[in-house]
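Quick question, first post here. What does this chain look like in 3D?
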Amino acid sequence: MSTNEPPLGKFGKERLENYVFPYLDGTTRAGTGLRFGSDFNTLEVANGKVLVVSTDPLAVSPQLGWNRSSKLALQVITTDVAVSGIRPSYLLANWNLPPCTSDETFKKIWRGFTREADRNNLTIIGGHTGRYEGSSFPTIGAGTAFGLGEKKELVPNDPAPGDRVYLLNRLGLEAATIFSFYHRDKVSGEVSSSAVSSVREEFDKIQPTSDLSFLASLPGVRALHDIAEGGLLGGLQEMLSGKSCGAKICTDRINVDQNVSRICRFLDLDPMRITSVGSGVAAVSSNRAGEFARRSEEADIPVREIGEITVGEELSIETKEGVEILEDPVQDEFWMRLAEF
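> Answer (accepted):
Ran it through. Tokens below.
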């Protein structure tokens, strides 16, 4: 790939501000809160109610199996609404299938997708389905999730100095699992078959939409962000974008699953900088932090305090070697590494 080609993946802050936001009506932007790093957007309707909306690519990977992959596709779309404090309730799905996709194959994808929707009490209210030249797995369309609720239910999205930073700690699990399906023999040979089996089993257990909806409902949560492209550090950059505060996190408080860590070392990937659907990061008021941790534990959701929100806009990372100030946007190297294999 030429070094002059634009980077793959979603647009960063600079590209959004240069090529997207200038062409949107100012009133519309203010009304829906469009900004870099926003998981969702809101529209006030009537009687104190708001409509929460988010859209994402529909990604389905044959290597993961149709059921597992369609489950992941739905979770990726709905977690961005879940962090708002209002549960996702409705979905639109636009399927742009590759021409070679048989009816039976789509039936398997759709059955897995709709079962996961049912399990999360989501109603599919419409969409579009067809086959098109140029379409190819894994990205075969887009989905939009909606949630309707009371405005007072929204997470404030207003972290403040002194808030505690909590991690829903499944860092790197998604990336390690995808690698284990795409390249099982290589990963098993370098790590172990038991490690591969372990990360797959853990991945199949995750319910990020449900977990994040629960965390968003807890008292004291001032900001909540799901961790996808860019990992924990990219997620923190997005959560703090446009805010007059920063964060300090301590890596010795972050315990990555042993098998995930082994696979990431083999792949030369940093678990804090790669896609991690199933994880999340929250800013919680210090006077409610104890309750947040206790109630999460009671719900069997693995959260861990990893730092605090600070004065100033720096994102600092404390390691055994010293303190790193993260200034440049995080580049997620997962898909690049996957392509190299």
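Residues 37-153 form a domain with the 60s Ribosomal Protein L30; Chain: A; fold (CATH 3.30.1330.10).
Confidence is low (pLDDT under 50) at residues 27-32.
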